[in-house]
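FORM 7B: Structural annotation worksheet

SECTION A. Query
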Amino acid sequence: MPMSSLPVVAPDSLLTLHYRVALASAAAIDTPVADTFGERPATLQLGTGQLAGPLEARLIGLHPGDHVTFELGPDEAYGARNPELLQRVSRELLDAESDRDASYQPGDFVEFSVPVGADGAPRGRFAGILKELNDQYALFDFNHPLAGQPIRFEVRIIGVL
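SECTION B. Predicted structure
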Protein backbone atom coordinates (compact mmCIF):
# COMPACT_ATOMS: atom_id res chain seq x y z
CA MET A 1 0.00 0.00 0.00
CA PRO A 2 1.54 3.39 -0.90
CA MET A 3 2.46 5.59 2.06
CA SER A 4 0.09 8.34 0.91
CA SER A 5 -2.94 6.08 1.53
CA LEU A 6 -1.88 5.12 5.08
CA PRO A 7 -3.34 7.13 7.96
CA VAL A 8 -0.99 9.75 9.32
CA VAL A 9 -0.48 10.76 12.94
CA ALA A 10 -2.16 14.12 13.59
CA PRO A 11 -2.21 16.27 16.78
CA ASP A 12 -5.48 14.66 17.94
CA SER A 13 -4.90 11.07 16.76
CA LEU A 14 -5.73 8.00 18.79
CA LEU A 15 -2.64 5.76 18.54
CA THR A 16 -1.67 2.21 19.24
CA LEU A 17 2.09 2.00 19.51
CA HIS A 18 5.09 0.52 21.20
CA TYR A 19 7.49 2.97 22.81
CA ARG A 20 10.63 3.02 24.87
CA VAL A 21 11.99 5.98 26.83
CA ALA A 22 15.55 5.80 28.17
CA LEU A 23 18.17 8.25 29.28
CA ALA A 24 20.37 9.04 26.28
CA SER A 25 23.66 8.35 28.05
CA ALA A 26 25.49 5.27 26.80
CA ALA A 27 25.40 3.73 30.29
CA ALA A 28 21.60 4.10 30.56
CA ILE A 29 20.41 3.17 27.04
CA ASP A 30 19.90 -0.46 28.05
CA THR A 31 17.87 0.50 31.14
CA PRO A 32 14.66 2.12 29.88
CA VAL A 33 12.40 4.04 32.24
CA ALA A 34 9.34 3.04 30.19
CA ASP A 35 9.13 0.20 27.66
CA THR A 36 6.15 -1.47 25.99
CA PHE A 37 8.15 -3.47 23.42
CA GLY A 38 7.68 -7.15 24.21
CA GLU A 39 4.45 -6.39 26.07
CA ARG A 40 1.01 -5.12 25.17
CA PRO A 41 1.23 -1.98 23.05
CA ALA A 42 0.06 1.31 24.49
CA THR A 43 -3.03 3.15 23.29
CA LEU A 44 -3.12 6.88 23.83
CA GLN A 45 -4.92 9.99 22.63
CA LEU A 46 -2.62 12.77 21.50
CA GLY A 47 -3.39 16.22 22.82
CA THR A 48 -4.67 15.04 26.21
CA GLY A 49 -1.42 15.09 28.18
CA GLN A 50 -0.94 11.32 28.26
CA LEU A 51 2.48 11.85 26.67
CA ALA A 52 4.77 14.85 27.09
CA GLY A 53 4.10 17.50 24.44
CA PRO A 54 7.57 17.38 22.84
CA LEU A 55 7.29 13.58 22.53
CA GLU A 56 3.86 13.91 20.92
CA ALA A 57 5.28 16.46 18.47
CA ARG A 58 7.84 13.90 17.27
CA LEU A 59 5.00 11.52 16.34
CA ILE A 60 3.13 13.95 14.05
CA GLY A 61 3.40 12.85 10.42
CA LEU A 62 4.32 9.21 11.16
CA HIS A 63 2.40 6.30 9.62
CA PRO A 64 1.50 2.79 10.83
CA GLY A 65 4.58 0.61 10.54
CA ASP A 66 7.06 3.45 11.12
CA HIS A 67 9.73 2.56 13.66
CA VAL A 68 11.92 5.50 14.62
CA THR A 69 14.21 6.67 17.39
CA PHE A 70 14.63 10.29 18.47
CA GLU A 71 17.25 11.86 20.71
CA LEU A 72 15.86 14.78 22.71
CA GLY A 73 17.83 17.26 24.78
CA PRO A 74 16.61 18.19 28.26
CA ASP A 75 14.72 21.27 27.06
CA GLU A 76 12.94 19.22 24.38
CA ALA A 77 12.14 16.30 26.63
CA TYR A 78 10.97 17.00 30.18
CA GLY A 79 12.50 20.45 30.55
CA ALA A 80 15.28 21.80 32.70
CA ARG A 81 15.32 21.09 36.41
CA ASN A 82 13.62 23.89 38.31
CA PRO A 83 15.21 24.55 41.71
CA GLU A 84 11.94 26.14 42.87
CA LEU A 85 10.32 22.69 42.65
CA LEU A 86 12.49 21.51 45.53
CA GLN A 87 10.03 22.20 48.37
CA ARG A 88 9.73 21.57 52.07
CA VAL A 89 6.45 20.10 53.28
CA SER A 90 5.69 20.17 56.97
CA ARG A 91 5.94 16.82 58.67
CA GLU A 92 2.46 17.48 60.06
CA LEU A 93 1.01 17.76 56.52
CA LEU A 94 2.90 14.70 55.31
CA ASP A 95 1.66 12.64 58.26
CA ALA A 96 -1.93 13.90 57.79
CA GLU A 97 -1.87 12.87 54.11
CA SER A 98 -0.24 9.49 54.70
CA ASP A 99 -1.55 6.10 55.72
CA ARG A 100 -1.19 5.57 59.43
CA ASP A 101 1.43 2.83 58.91
CA ALA A 102 3.35 4.67 56.19
CA SER A 103 7.10 4.70 56.51
CA TYR A 104 9.14 6.83 54.12
CA GLN A 105 12.76 6.78 53.10
CA PRO A 106 14.71 9.23 50.91
CA GLY A 107 14.22 8.20 47.29
CA ASP A 108 10.55 7.20 47.77
CA PHE A 109 7.97 8.52 45.31
CA VAL A 110 5.17 10.02 47.40
CA GLU A 111 1.78 11.30 46.26
CA PHE A 112 -0.48 13.42 48.42
CA SER A 113 -3.23 16.01 48.10
CA VAL A 114 -2.75 19.70 48.58
CA PRO A 115 -4.68 21.16 51.51
CA VAL A 116 -8.08 22.65 50.78
CA GLY A 117 -8.29 26.31 49.87
CA ALA A 118 -10.26 29.02 51.66
CA ASP A 119 -13.33 27.92 49.69
CA GLY A 120 -13.02 24.39 51.12
CA ALA A 121 -12.21 22.84 47.74
CA PRO A 122 -9.16 20.57 47.42
CA ARG A 123 -6.41 22.07 45.33
CA GLY A 124 -5.24 18.88 43.63
CA ARG A 125 -2.64 16.18 44.08
CA PHE A 126 1.12 16.38 43.97
CA ALA A 127 3.80 13.75 43.67
CA GLY A 128 7.48 14.05 44.32
CA ILE A 129 10.64 12.24 45.26
CA LEU A 130 11.45 12.41 48.96
CA LYS A 131 14.95 13.81 49.39
CA GLU A 132 15.17 14.40 53.13
CA LEU A 133 13.01 13.67 56.16
CA ASN A 134 13.21 14.84 59.75
CA ASP A 135 10.83 15.63 62.62
CA GLN A 136 9.95 19.10 61.27
CA TYR A 137 9.72 18.68 57.50
CA ALA A 138 10.08 16.51 54.42
CA LEU A 139 12.06 17.86 51.48
CA PHE A 140 10.54 16.87 48.12
CA ASP A 141 11.71 17.25 44.56
CA PHE A 142 8.61 17.92 42.45
CA ASN A 143 10.55 18.05 39.17
CA HIS A 144 9.75 15.30 36.68
CA PRO A 145 12.26 12.51 37.36
CA LEU A 146 13.65 12.95 33.83
CA ALA A 147 13.87 16.76 33.99
CA GLY A 148 17.30 18.02 33.01
CA GLN A 149 18.18 14.74 31.26
CA PRO A 150 18.64 14.04 27.55
CA ILE A 151 16.50 11.08 26.52
CA ARG A 152 16.14 8.57 23.72
CA PHE A 153 12.55 8.01 22.54
CA GLU A 154 11.94 4.94 20.35
CA VAL A 155 8.52 4.32 18.87
CA ARG A 156 6.81 1.88 16.49
CA ILE A 157 3.40 3.04 15.27
CA ILE A 158 0.92 0.16 15.05
CA GLY A 159 -2.36 1.95 14.35
CA VAL A 160 -3.71 5.46 13.85
CA LEU A 161 -7.35 6.54 14.23
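SECTION C. Observations
The mean pLDDT is 88. The two ends are 17 Å apart (CA to CA).

SECTION D. Sign-off
Analyst initials: ____
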